[in-house]
Amino acid sequence: MSRVTEIDSSRLKIFLAFQNDPLQFVSSLLYDGDMVSLRSSRKRPAYVVNSPEFVQEILVGKDDFFIKGRSSSVLSRTIGDGLLTSEHEKHQQQRNYMQPVFYKERIQAYAETVIGEARAFADRLTDGQTLSVSDEMMKLTLTVIAQTMFATNLEERKSELAAAVNDTIERSARTLFLPFILPLGVPTPGNLVHRRAIRTLETMIYEVIDDAFNHPEPYRLSLLGLLMDTKDAQGQGIPSDEMRNQMMTMLLAGHETTANLLTWIWFSLAENPEVEAKFHQELDHMDLTTGSAMENYRKLSYTSLIIQEALRLYPPAWVILRESEREVSLLGETFPPQSTFLISPYALHRNKHVFKDPDVFRPERFADGISKWPRFAYFPFGGGSRSCIGSNFAMMEATLILAVIGKQFRFRRVDTSSVVPEPLISLRIKGGLTMAAYKHG
Which InterPro entries match (predicted)? Predict the structure, then answer.
């Protein structure tokens, strides 16, 4: 018996339903079969993947059969051929030379930077102050990524750069699921905004690269310093354009995802008083001014559970796309070349057969680890050769930012409007999140 089922709707209705509300669409198919055919064209069939077994086959077992396809084509217009968009051998080469940036000893140094920047942010807050939490988290994580990855202080330009990042993300997201990709050179209003945002980011990046070549010492322990020192088998260094691509990748993938995650967590804490009380109870028993940042990070056990639960309900990577380059057999089912597979952690993380009360924010469900669930029932950082290279960094950063700010403040919403998820390149709150900060204790 086939594990592939076919959706009972026309291709036009399927397309319109997905365009109107992608999250609702993929969630509505969760119990319709392990692999759901979207009745797309025979030459380029598309499927929604609902089974952790099929997810594992695609991301790990048969990884060599797939490329990212359309998602890489769209993102490469902004970030070029970087770690997020390169394929196969080139991707592995890039991952190998970038991996040392995320070694344990490097992350320990980054943790001190995170603590310092989070403390500076908290010190600027005042009791009762109203702020856009989404915007402020974006600026904070941008500052962190610039200092840790680029050894650069962007304090005076962070608003401009955060806006440019936002513009590139919004324009890319609007293109990702359109029937065809309009070339970026076509002077539409959207493309003009996108190209201007890219120029803004590139100007900063090339200024930093030029300064690093002229004054290399301050950059030695950063990603940029590593890129400058890397040589290929022929002894050739990495071209400036490739450095630009990797730095652009870190700007888009390295801070926007964490900023959105933190925003979802501040919202979730305010909506779940019992969880928030346990969070502050953990912080009240800790002195974050003594010991190393990493020592404190390892002690924040309940805060870590909060983050894991937020990653379950609001995974920044809400969708993963794969395209088969040639015919592939998955668990006894055969799929033709150019088949597209849509994998949604957002939907799969809400499977009621795996997670009891899946829509409830309950960090305690992670207290005993994730081994009790099927592999790839929970996979916020993807899996296989393309799993998130910075997952340990992201967990450390989110934990310490929450702890340092939460030690002094709690946040409350200032309106009663509905909070709606917006599935762009990563999952954020539509329209942002405005809250008031109140002194804790």
Answer: Cyt_P450, Cyt_P450_CS, Cyt_P450_E_grp-I, Cyt_P450_sf, Cytochrome_P450_Monoox
